């Protein structure tokens, strides 16, 4: 499957973004190649298109499957392993967010909860715990909000995103019309 210049640019960029999403460049490139392809992609095609070893492809596919981003696909009459995206772009994005939360946010929240259970030994610890409480509360609120947004589904979320700054303007208007009922409360 020859890649077009447009696909090549996208695949290379997704490789660079892979590090920011929580996996390496090659895995990011593999994900992009599979997502952008019209037909199921064989492991050999991935190796050929990205000029990487079959061993590297095998390890990358295992990682993508552990993230639940790609899945094997049976092609009748073929003995090769083929792969397709494990859902829509929306579902893949949700899985990346979910995995990042599990790997980054959840352990941090767990540590913060443990630290906040300890009795402060001195005023320095008391001050630190107050700040840790702020961090904990912010992460809890952001996580809860993120889960609510994910539960909305793609159509409602797109509508919400289109509202964008309009939501902020509505909250400001509410504050003006209903003094004492600040939206920051």
TrEMBL record:
<dbReference type="InterPro" id="IPR036390">
    <property type="entry name" value="WH_DNA-bd_sf"/>
</dbReference>
<dbReference type="InterPro" id="IPR036388">
    <property type="entry name" value="WH-like_DNA-bd_sf"/>
</dbReference>
<dbReference type="InterPro" id="IPR026282">
    <property type="entry name" value="MJ1563"/>
</dbReference>
<dbReference type="GO" id="GO:0003677">
    <property type="term" value="F:DNA binding"/>
</dbReference>
<feature type="domain" description="HTH marR-type">
    <location>
        <begin position="22"/>
        <end position="77"/>
    </location>
</feature>
<dbReference type="InterPro" id="IPR011991">
    <property type="entry name" value="ArsR-like_HTH"/>
</dbReference>
<keyword id="KW-0805">Transcription regulation</keyword>
<keyword id="KW-0804">Transcription</keyword>
<dbReference type="Pfam" id="PF12802">
    <property type="entry name" value="MarR_2"/>
</dbReference>
<comment type="similarity">
    <text>Belongs to the GbsR family.</text>
</comment>
<keyword id="KW-0238">DNA-binding</keyword>
<dbReference type="GO" id="GO:0003700">
    <property type="term" value="F:DNA-binding transcription factor activity"/>
</dbReference>
<dbReference type="InterPro" id="IPR000835">
    <property type="entry name" value="HTH_MarR-typ"/>
</dbReference>
<protein>
    <recommendedName>
        <fullName>HTH-type transcriptional regulator</fullName>
    </recommendedName>
</protein>
<dbReference type="InterPro" id="IPR052362">
    <property type="entry name" value="HTH-GbsR_regulator"/>
</dbReference>
């Amino acid at each position: 499957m020859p890649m077009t210049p447009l696909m090549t640019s996208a695949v290379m960029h997704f490789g660079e973004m892979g590090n920011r999403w929580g996996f390496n460049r090659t895995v990011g490139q593999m994900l992009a190649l599979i997502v952008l392809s019209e037909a199921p992609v064989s492991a050999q095609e991935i190796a050929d298109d990205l000029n990487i070893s079959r061993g590297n492809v095998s390890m990358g596919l295992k990682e993508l499957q552990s993230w639940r981003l790609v899945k094997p696909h049976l092609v009748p009459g073929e003995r090769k392993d083929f792969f397709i995206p494990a859902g829509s772009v929306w579902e893949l994005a949700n899985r990346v967010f979910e995995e990042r939360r599990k790997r980054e946010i959840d352990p941090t929240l767990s540590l913060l909860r443990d630290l906040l259970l300890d009795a402060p030994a001195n005023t320095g610890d008391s001050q630190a715990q107050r700040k840790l409480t702020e961090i904990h509360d912010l992460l809890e609120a952001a996580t809860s909000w993120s889960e609510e947004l994910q539960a909305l589904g793609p159509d409602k979320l797109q509508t919400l995103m289109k509202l964008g700054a309009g939501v902020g303007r509505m909250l400001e208007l509410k504050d003006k019309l209903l003094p004492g009922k600040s939206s920051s409360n």
